[in-house]
Amino acid sequence: MNALAEIKSRFSNAIQQVSDDEPEQFLDMIRPAQDGRFGDYQVNCAMSLGKRLNKPTRDVAAELLELVKVDDFCADSEVAGPGFINLTLDDDWIKNRLTQALTRSNLGVDQAATPQTVVIDFSSPNVAKPMHVGHIRSTVIGDALARILRFAGHRVITDNHLGDWGTQFGMIIYGYKNFVNEAAFEASPIDELLRLYKQVRQIIDYHQAKNKTIPKLESDQAQLTKKLDELKSAEVPTEKSAAKKHRKEIGSLEKKLKEIDETLDGDQEKDPPIIGLHAKVASVEADPEQLELANKHATIGDMVLQETASLHAGDAENKSLWEKFLPICRQDIQKIYDRLDIQFDHEHGESFYHDMLGEVVQSLEQKEIARESEGATCVFLDGYDTPMIVRKKDGAFLYSTTDLATIKYRMDHWSPDVALYVVDHRQHEHFAKLFAVAEKWGYDKTDLRHISFGTILGRDGKPFKTREGDTVGLEGLLNTAVQKSFELVSDLDDKNPEGPQLDEPTRRSVAECVGLGALKYADLSQNRTSDYTFSYEKMVNLKGNTAPYLQYSYARVQGIYKKGNIDPQTIRENPQPFLFETEIERNLALQLIRFGEAIDEVMVDYKPNLLASYLYELTEMFHSFFNQCPVLTAETEELKASRLQLCELVASTIKTGLSLLGIGVVDRM
Ligand code: ARG
What we know:
Layout: H1 3-18, H2 24-27, E1 30-32, E2 41-43, H3 46-53, H4 57-67, E3 74-80, E4 84-89, H5 91-103, E5 117-121, H6 136-151, E6 155-159, H7 167-179, H8 182-187, H9 189-233, H10 240-265, H11 277-285, H12 288-296, H13 300-312, H14 316-340, H15 357-366, E7 371-373, E8 376-379, E9 388-391, H16 399-414, E10 418-424, H17 428-441, E11 447-453, E12 456-457, H18 474-494, H19 504-524, E13 532-533, H20 536-539, H21 547-564, H22 568-573, H23 583-593, H24 595-605, H25 609-628, H26 637-660
Parallel strand pairs: 5-6, 5-10, 10-11, 12-13
Antiparallel strand pairs: 1-2, 2-4, 3-4, 7-8, 8-9
Helix pairs in contact: 1-4, 3-4, 5-23, 7-9, 7-13, 9-10, 9-11, 13-14, 16-17, 18-19, 21-26, 23-25, 23-26, 24-25, 25-26
The structure holds arginine.
Arginine (ARG) binds next to helix 16 and strand 10.
């Protein structure tokens, strides 16, 4: 057990002896000390316990400390201030843990005492369109969680819930039937399918903008302008708060109008510039060929829905087109998974559940969970204005119905204790309703969790888009990150005092590892629930909380080995005593043995960024150590051996930690 877990478990027992309250709530108040003067760990629960028990807090602290025996691993324990308990680990105990980390597998981190079965639903792109920046978060967060939970000893089942059955197939089926260029399809099926997808999308968007969005916005614009004019020409109220309200109203109208203007007419001044709907429509109309196509396919939106519906109804032609297209689309996505080193245990896409949907609705009806409403079948839930629709008026099933079938399937086949859905925050309501329905349906034993995440923003603070306003393709993103890393690696190598060490192919392969690592890490080091701004400069950088910084530190240790002609294997096989000659060494040691705590922390709320922060702090400490404690030229052989062991532990902790984030390391960079 790691130190924090050990302390918590012992205090949990003690708390139960002094109070009837659940100890859980107090255990969060046991933390690593922020300041070395207060020992290594602080137990701060005596204050709230004291209030609860109506006893002086210092007395409660003393009582707890009396009950808890820590002298087998703490050198010092004391009550301080109003009732803090400060614990200082025994150096020999730390050294013992270091040796275990050095010689045991998994860096000495224990396996979960009660392993759980955890299903992780992640990545799950809608195929038939290229993977874009929006897919990166689910893919890397889900993969990292899978790796971390497995490392901790849980039984993890990953499942890629591909969107392989939706309207996007209706789109390429319609596109194929109407616009295909056979020769192009022969030559490169995926490129032709993507062209078809874009073509159909463009015509749909054209009609949508021209006939729906623009007229609606223009009428809003006229109304708001009129209202604004009225307000502006009206007399400003003399009373202070009324005047303020008046100004506020004008301000808010102006803001709304500005947003509408921007949507309609764009903004060239912005970086990247915003292209307005008027210009988009005009660009189609300026191209006679496109205009003719658009006019010829004026009902395209409905037609696409019809193609989708007949695919679902088992229409032979559409089914065979779907069977032809799916592997082509899937293979395209595989290129990205291969590059990112992402694997799944299962890939039950939406189509997999199609035949089960009727039964799902039937079962919900039988159990009187769902009922008819305006022709549709719905589940009404407390606390929501709108029901969850499980079958539409026209008989079609929905995303929700498929998700219910998925829950049933996973329960029947895998009986998970936990099911994680790594999906962006916009689907919050979908999952809240889904889980509520699942509970009513009888699946109330499994912890169903939406692992929500924020949006990736561009420099303008809006969702990251290309200059043309399209979503950013993932492949291009990976290529750019790798190219920037190639420049970084080349520059670093060119500046090597001993002259460049890496040939071009080596630089390229190092850049692949560094670039993809940088991209993943930029995402994983953020609190998943926040939005973050995408920046190559920040992520592909040796300074700051970045993957290249951690990878560089790993390579530095390998550099020490090379210089000293040292085989790390021998370090592991012949453990020597650890020495804490300086405070830096003890601090570094303490951080090293806290790896298991970082893993525990990640699992509380499924936040990989806590592992990233841990690794970053470790690397910062390693740098102080590296700058102040000579390793190869240490004063004595014993000190050299101890320091080499610390280096080896730093390197393997960085390597293992990064691997849990799905990121590799390189020996030289
Ligand atoms: N394909 C969906 C989308 O792109 C995400 C699926 C998430 N998983 C699930 N079981 N609903 O929005």
